[in-house]
UniProtKB/TrEMBL annotation:
Protein name: p53 apoptosis effector related to PMP-22
Domain of life: Eukaryota
UniProt similarity note: Belongs to the TMEM47 family.
Gene Ontology process terms (BP): apoptotic process; cell-cell adhesion
Gene3D superfamilies: 1.20.140.150
Cell compartments where the protein resides: Cell junction, Desmosome; Cell membrane; Cytoplasm
Annotated membrane topology: Multi-pass membrane protein
GO CC terms, sorted: cytoplasm; desmosome; plasma membrane
Stretches that traverse the bilayer: 12-36, 77-100, 107-131, 151-172
Pfam family, one: PMP22_Claudin
Record keywords, A-Z: Apoptosis, Cell adhesion, Cell junction, Cell membrane, Cytoplasm, Membrane, Transmembrane, Transmembrane helix
Amino acid sequence: MVKYGLDYTRCRWILPLLLGIGVIFGIIALAGPGWLESQTLPYVQQASLWQNCRRPDQGGEWSCESLMGYAWGRAAAATYLVGFLLLVICFALAIIAFAIDTLRFNFIRGIGGLLFVAAVFSIMGLVIYPVKFSSEIDMTGINMFSWAYGFGWTTAIMEICLGFFFCCLPNYEDQILGNVKPTYFYSSP
């Protein structure tokens, strides 16, 4: 990407595309019912960021309780949701930044800083949830933190990695804009 510059048509939209994938993963984590699930038969417990569901036996009805009744449940949901909203804002700002013909590199560095703030909020929610869930809610059987929780961590890791990339990109401003003279290692005899 640095070799051709950000004006190269196929490379210009890689960063906003990766942010868009992070937004999709965040939506899956927010809406997914698989934050915690029973690992073995009988499957008696399933929890999301918003509620905890259990059933007494294999063929019984699921009974759900909201996690918003707990202070830690509201804190985990609020911090993860703030991190997700900051990610959506960064996605919109990245589209704006890369759609303009002249790149504003300080603007791009600001997006990177905002991604780090989003990662901090996301990680806070992802840490509060399992610590308080396992200590305050009785779990039956063998349980595991499952696929939706994994999508939440994937979103947080993408926020950190893309934050580094957005912050480091202005260091290569001359190479991106083509202001560096090529160096040749061939000398004539």
